[in-house]
Specification:
Largest sheet: 6 strands, antiparallel
Structural class: alpha+beta
Shape: globular
Strand content: 25-35%
Helix content: 10-25%
Order of helices and strands: EEHHHEEEEEE
Strand order of the largest sheet: 3-8-4-5-6-7
Amino acid sequence: VSTQIGYKESSENYLVAADGVTKQGYTRYGEWFGDKYGEWSGMFVSFCLDYAGVDRNEFPIESDLNRQITKLKEKALYHKSTTEYRPKAGDLIFFDDDKYDIAADDNRTADRVGFVYEVVYEKGSKRIVGIKAVEGDSNDRVEIKEYDIIDGTILGYGEIPDRSIGVL
């Protein structure tokens, strides 16, 4: 994942979206997935999981984030941000940019996904205070972003079983 940080979608090879204004740049993740000008948050994560050798029988690889969450729930690998789950580096982190009331989180849907890059602890404590995430299609690039652990946009986490992955 860290080798992808800084990658940018093309500003010269693009399609103009249906609104006639938005440019959707080419990405290698979209090319790999079969949708070279598509929204690529999920395709970036899928590309990295595939490259790391994740066993698709144990962990679903999807570009449709909500379908991926459904499949993760079926395997008991999805954890809402409101649970006691302690995220770890390598987990997927799903976001809902609409920031719905966290109490009504059953109605929330994922808008983007990334990888937990680092869990940030309170100094001298085991209390998690933040998450650093590597995200694709963030400002049209792959970048690290930091979130407070109670950030209302964090929807939940996809736990990757240790036995199903190579090196992320």
